[in-house]
Amino acid sequence: MDTSQVPGALRLFHPLWDPVADEDVAHADEICGRGNFRTWAKITSHVYAACERRSEAMVDRALLAWACSRLGPTP
Q: Which branch of life, at top level (predicted)?
C-alpha cells in the first residue's frame, strides 16, 4: 500500500485504529509497516493485546513503537 492509504485501510480492517492520529500511523508505517498489510496485521495484534491488558491504554506513538519493536529487526 502507498503510505497515504494505510490509515484508511487500517480503519476498515479494525476499529482499534479509528481514534489513532494519521501522523502516528504514518510514522509507524515509515519505521516498520512499510505498507505491508501482513506486517500491519501483526502490529494490530500486538497493539490490541496491549490495550486488552491495560484497559486505559491509548494507541499513540509510544505504543506503536513498542508494538513495532515486538516484530524484531527490519532490514
A: Bacteria
